[in-house]
């Protein structure tokens, strides 16, 4: 079970919740279950989302595992220059 | 899958030394080839016609006279660029930016293009194209664009159920700022503005495009990401990826401005139309008007603190303009605003606003410098109000391992505390200041990224190695990659030659941005080297007729383990390579990786200035950069990144700005009037590299390229405010602005 | 438009070309003679990336007409090394990492050589002002100044050796 923090527009998609509990072993599974629970998230996730697991930011790697009890945060897919 | 994180205070033999870079001789002899340095037989020269209006409907374009001009081979408008984006708004915006469809959205927006036998003919042809514009009201200021009566840039954008220029509103933060402000002994609230600047790379955008009637094409281009360019060009033009070979030239500076296509699809489309190579080079005027500068912004900051120095609440409202197409720059500003601090109650709200200016692109650590200017200036004001030393105030509130970042996640081990402690100890802080001189310091934060990367490592029969990477080398990373491969393989640095492949010769590599080049290609190089080592151990095992389990790699050789193998002398890489034909063929290592976990990075800068109270002119007399690099692979190039970012930030802080007229036209699209720092403007820039290893990289590498542009606006701002005796809140702090601030203070006083 | 026939000397070699009257020396070098070492950063004489010397004088070749160098000696970056021996400036630039992207480097080397040819013992301030006509966006100029100082030492040593 992971505690997933949401920011900004993702919070609006989750009916205003700042954080939700989801059971997921990988990032891929997490995103799939989020969209199942909150279909409105689909467009923001398609646009691009980064996932922070215990402070490490993952932009592309969907296979990354989510250890039990880790802090997960969904961020926009940021880029640099 | 956890990456190999075997960094545990390793003793490096080769990493951290300063050998010469492989492209050095080419670059000091003029032999290195940049975007405009390639030509092809029979090539045409292309030029683009650009809108002189900030906002206009394009009613009609008559190209007939231009087409008839002798020497003109092709004329192109959006009619020749059908919409193949299939509803992808992001791609459609890129297409529309490359060539206006039914409206011009900024001064400089491309409306037509010509390919002719020489530049003179192309220029003449542009003059013969008749465009019937209906001029519309325009808006170029971010605050004005948010008002209810502002001209609307994109009719599809709505906010609060009405047409608007507010494309996106983002919020980050946690806790309860209202409660936090109630607890404060001192509250400072201030507003700031920063003007638009350009990355200012010395090499303009340039490409040579060739597309044949069989749909195959080649593009030689100056870019930070040739794979990304291939993908977007192919997508917009309906070409297949494998059949469009994109080669990255040497790049003459990018800093984020060469992560987007601006005119390359147009060059390819012209070439395809007429079946001849087309060379398209932007003039400096076009670079300023029609590539991707950074945002102009307007930021409000409020900080509350107790007398003992603890910040009880912090909030920021940020307004960033994206140009005419929705983007995430304001959101990034909101995310980075408070990242340096450990705050219980924090809030950032950002507006991404559309205006009639060129499409904004990333500039080094995009959006962070402007937010940092506002935050770090206010931090100084709060420190002064409670009578606390500005460095101590920051130390007291600095983020650390376990801090909940203002943008959401919790930090692992980070470097801001160490950089602040290093500032305290640095001799710069004890240097004496004279009359009209001031000292300022500031902190900065940036994310750093990983991304898709692959690398090939091929071993020649003489034991020398071709290391093939796909991340464009913007500042010397080929040397760093060779160092990494040499370290892994245990061989001398100069046995390795590193090249950047074209898109046909290696798999996809993400763009060199987000300070990811050394981090990602470094990681892929390490794994490719280990892959090759595996193969070489197998070959040695074959030769020795022993089990490969008994072979290990040590100091550049395969070594047979165990007492019963003690008669076998180690086999060097050279020896194994020499025998490769007989042991199974060419030896190579390969790796594809999605490098992630790049780790965040922090910097603290110290700046001394002298302000002439009569002219408002500022001289930077001393500057120090202290930044955490995780592990500096080639210290010279890490220092170079620190110094380069600082210099850009100094220019941004003191002189650089886009000046727009009432007519919405850019008034200063030249290096004469867009004043970047020259050699005599700057002092030596001292650097101190801290190495707090990134636990998510085998060598502990953190990205370094971007963070150094984040603190300078505020470091210079704090120094100028002290020297001039008045708080500056508008960047650039050019002489007229400083004089005005001094006079206003005197009038009040 | 009739072309202008120009005879000149470039990097020590007799060179002839035909160019338009309004064509710049920079365009002649790059597009007619294939000498792409000099770069166009701005076309208006503000960045110095096109620096060459004409009769020993440092100029922006984008501000000189091709026709103007008739009978003159032009020296570009391509002529700085003597055979396969790099000029001390070229060596020290590599050694001191005085280049990152390298596009401004030819201009800096030509300007640096023009400085050392007339003043082989410049102070840091003299170096900074002599190079103020060359823009660099990558390095912040720090390592460039270090490299020019180091090369100046080499040049003085060479000159002393010649004197003996």
What's this, in brief?
The complex is a heterotrimer of chains A (81), B (749) and C (164). Chain B has 749 residues and is α+β, with helices and mostly antiparallel strands. Chain B contains 20 helices and 29 strands.
* Share in β-strands of chain B: 15-25%
Average pLDDT of chain A, rounded to a whole number, is 85
> What ranges of chain A have pLDDT less than 50 throughout 5 or more consecutive residues?
none
Please report the two chains with the greatest interface, counting residues with C-beta closer than 8 angstroms to the partner's C-beta. B-C, 58 and 57 residues
CATH class of chain A: Alpha Beta
Describe this structure in words.
The complex is a heterotrimer of chains A (81), B (749) and C (164). With 81 residues, chain A is an alpha+beta fold. Helices cover 30% and strands 27% of the residues of chain A. The radius of gyration of chain A is 11 Å and the shape is globular. The model of chain A has no long low-confidence stretch (mean pLDDT 85). The radius of gyration of chain B is 28 Å and the shape is globular. Chain C is an alpha+beta fold and 164 residues long. Chain C has 2 domains: 4-79, Ubiquitin-like (UB roll) (Roll), CATH 3.10.20.30; 88-163, [2Fe-2S]-binding domain (DNA polymerase, domain 1, Orthogonal Bundle), CATH 1.10.150. Chain C is 36% helix and 15% strand. The longest helix of chain C is centred in the C-terminal third of the chain and has 22 residues, at 142-163. Chain C is globular and about 50 Å long.
Give the SSE layout.
The complex is a heterotrimer of chains A (81), B (749) and C (164).
Chain A: E1 2-5, H1 8-13, E2 19-22, H2 27-37, H3 41-47, E3 49-53, E4 56-58, E5 71-76
Parallel strand pairs in A: 1-5
Antiparallel strand pairs in A: 1-2, 3-4, 3-5
Chain B: H1 24-29, E1 44-50, E2 56-62, H2 64-68, E3 72-76, H3 89-98, E4 103-104, E5 110-116, H4 119-128, E6 130-135, H5 142-145, E7 158-159, E8 162-163, E9 166-174, H6 177-183, E10 186-194, E11 206-211, E12 217-221, H7 226-237, E13 244-248, H8 264-274, E14 278-281, H9 284-290, E15 297-305, E16 311-321, H10 329-336, E17 346-353, H11 368-386, H12 390-397, H13 416-425, E18 437-446, E19 451-459, E20 465-469, H14 477-489, E21 496-500, H15 517-544, E22 551-554, E23 557-560, E24 571-572, H16 573-578, H17 580-583, E25 587-595, E26 601-611, E27 618-628, H18 635-654, E28 685-690, H19 712-724, E29 730-731, H20 735-748
Parallel strand pairs in B: 1-14, 10-29, 12-13, 16-17, 20-21, 27-28
Antiparallel strand pairs in B: 1-5, 2-4, 2-6, 3-5, 7-8, 9-17, 10-15, 11-12, 11-14, 15-16, 18-26, 19-20, 19-25, 22-23, 23-24, 26-27
Helix pairs in contact in B: 7-8, 10-11, 11-19, 14-15, 18-19
Chain C: E1 4-10, E2 13-19, H1 25-32, E3 51-54, E4 57-60, E5 73-75, H2 88-95, H3 105-118, H4 124-130, H5 142-163
Parallel strand pairs in C: 1-5
Antiparallel strand pairs in C: 1-2, 3-4, 3-5
Helix pairs in contact in C: 2-5
């Amino acid at each position: 079970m992971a505690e997933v923090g949401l920011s900004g527009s993702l919070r609006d998609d989750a009916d205003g919740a700042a954080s939700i509990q989801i059971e997921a072993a990988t990032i891929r599974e997490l995103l799939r279950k989020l969209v199942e629970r909150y279909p409105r998230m689909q467009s923001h996730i398609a646009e691009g989302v980064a996932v922070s697991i215990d402070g490490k930011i993952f932009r592309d790697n969907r296979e990354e595992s989510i250890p039990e009890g880790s802090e997960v945060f969904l961020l926009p897919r940021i880029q640099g220059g | 899958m956890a990456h190999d994180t075997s960094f545990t205070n390793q003793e490096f033999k080769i990493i951290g030394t300063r050998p010469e870079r492989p492209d050095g001789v080419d670059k000091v002899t003029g032999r290195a080839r940049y975007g405009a340095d390639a030509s092809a037989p029979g090539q045409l020269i292309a030029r683009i016609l650009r809108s002189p209006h900030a906002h206009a409907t394009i009613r009609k374009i008559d190209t007939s006279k231009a087409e008839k001009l002798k020497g003109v081979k092709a004329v192109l408008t959006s009619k020749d660029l059908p919409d193949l984006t299939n509803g992808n708004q992001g791609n459609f915006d890129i297409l529309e930016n490359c060539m206006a469809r039914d409206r011009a959205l900024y001064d400089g927006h491309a409306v037509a293009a010509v390919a002719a036998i020489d530049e003179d003919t192309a220029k003449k042809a542009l003059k013969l194209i008749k465009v019937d514009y209906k001029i519309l009201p325009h808006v170029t200021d971010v605050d004005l664009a948010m008002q209810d009566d502002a001209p609307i840039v994109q009719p599809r954008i709505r906010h609060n159920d009405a047409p608007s220029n507010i494309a996106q509103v983002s919020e980050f933060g946690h806790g309860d700022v209202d409660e936090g402000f109630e607890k404060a002994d001192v509250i400072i609230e201030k507003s700031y503005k920063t003007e638009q600047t350009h990355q200012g790379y010395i090499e303009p955008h340039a490409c040579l495009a060739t597309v044949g009637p069989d749909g195959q094409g080649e593009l030689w281009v100056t870019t930070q990401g040739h794979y990304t360019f291939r993908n977007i060009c192919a997508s917009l033009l309906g070409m297949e990826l494998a059949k469009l070979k994109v080669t990255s030239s040497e790049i003459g500076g990018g800093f984020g401005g060469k992560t987007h296509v601006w005119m390359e699809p147009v060059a390819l489309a012209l070439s395809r139309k007429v079946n001849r190579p087309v060379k398209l080079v932007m003039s400096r005027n076009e670079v300023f008007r029609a590539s991707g500068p950074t945002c102009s912004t307007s930021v409000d900051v409020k900080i509350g603190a107790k007398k003992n120095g603890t910040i009880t609440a912090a909030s920021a409202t940020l307004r960033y303009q994206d140009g005419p197409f929705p983007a995430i720059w304001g959101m990034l500003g909101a995310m980075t605003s408070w990242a340096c601090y450990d705050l219980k109650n924090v809030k950032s709200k950002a507006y991404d606003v559309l205006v009639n200016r060129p499409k904004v692109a990333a500039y080094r650590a995009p959006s962070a410098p402007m937010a940092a200017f506002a935050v770090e200036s206010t931090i100084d004001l709060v420190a002064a109000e409670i009578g606390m030393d500005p460095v101590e105030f920051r130390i007291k509130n600095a983020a650390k391992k376990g801090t909940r970042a203002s943008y959401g996640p919790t930090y692992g081990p980070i470097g801001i505390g160490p950089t602040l402690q290093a500032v305290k100890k640095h001799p710069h802080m004890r240097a004496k200041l004279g009359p009209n001189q001031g000292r300022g310091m500031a902190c900065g934060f940036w994310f750093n990224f990983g991304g898709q990367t692959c690398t090939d490592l091929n071993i020649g029969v003489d034991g020398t190695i071709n290391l093939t990477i796909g991340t464009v080398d913007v500042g010397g990373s080929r040397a760093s990659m060779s160092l990494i491969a040499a370290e892994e393989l245990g061989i001398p640095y100069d046995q390795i030659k590193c090249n950047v492949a074209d898109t046909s010769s290696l798999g996809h590599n993400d763009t060199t941005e987000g300070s990811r080049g050394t981090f990602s290609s470094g990681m892929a190089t390490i794994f490719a080297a280990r892959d090759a080592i595996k193969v070489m151990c197998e070959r040695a095992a074959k030769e020795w007729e022993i089990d490969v389990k008994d072979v290990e790699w040590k100091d550049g050789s395969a070594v047979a383990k165990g007492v019963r193998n003690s008669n076998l002398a180690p086999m060097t890489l050279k020896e194994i390579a020499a025998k490769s034909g007989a042991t199974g063929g060419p030896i190579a290592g390969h790796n594809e990786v999605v490098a992630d976990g790049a780790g965040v990075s922090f910097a603290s800068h110290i700046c001394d200035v002298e302000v002439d109270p009569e002219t408002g002119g500022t001289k930077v007399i001393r500057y120090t950069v202290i930044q955490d690099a995780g592990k500096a692979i080639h210290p010279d190039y890490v220092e170079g990144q620190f110094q380069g970012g600082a210099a850009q930030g100094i220019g941004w802080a003191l002189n650089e700005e886009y000046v727009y007229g009432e007519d919405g036209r850019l008034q200063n699209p030249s290096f004469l009037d867009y004043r970047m720092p020259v050699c005599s403007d700057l002092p030596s820039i001292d650097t101190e590299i801290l190495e707090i290893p990134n636990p998510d990289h085998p060598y502990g590498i953190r990205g370094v390229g971007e963070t150094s542009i984040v603190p300078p606006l505020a470091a210079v701002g704090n120094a100028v405010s002290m020297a001039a005796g008045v708080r500056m809140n508008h960047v650039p702090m050019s002489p007229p602005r400083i004089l005005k601030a001094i006079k206003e203070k005197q009038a009040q006083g | 438009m009739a072309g202008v026939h120009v005879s000149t000397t470039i990097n020590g070699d007799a060179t002839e070309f035909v160019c338009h009257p309004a064509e710049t020396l920079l365009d002649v070098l790059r597009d007619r003679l294939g000498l792409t070492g000099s770069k166009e950063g701005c076309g208006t004489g503000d960045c110095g990336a096109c620096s060459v010397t004409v009769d020993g004088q440092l100029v922006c070749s984008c501000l000189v007409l091709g026709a103007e160098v008739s009978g003159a000696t032009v020296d570009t970056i391509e002529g700085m090394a003597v055979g396969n021996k790099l000029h001390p400036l070229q060596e020290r630039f590599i050694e001191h990492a005085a280049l990152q992207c390298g596009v401004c480097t030819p201009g800096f080397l030509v300007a640096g050589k023009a400085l050392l040819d007339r003043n082989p013992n410049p102070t840091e301030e003299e170096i900074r002002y002599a190079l103020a006509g060359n823009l660099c966006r990558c390095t912040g100029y720090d390592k460039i100044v270090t490299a020019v100082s180091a090369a100046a030492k080499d040049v003085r040593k060479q000159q002393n050796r010649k004197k003996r």
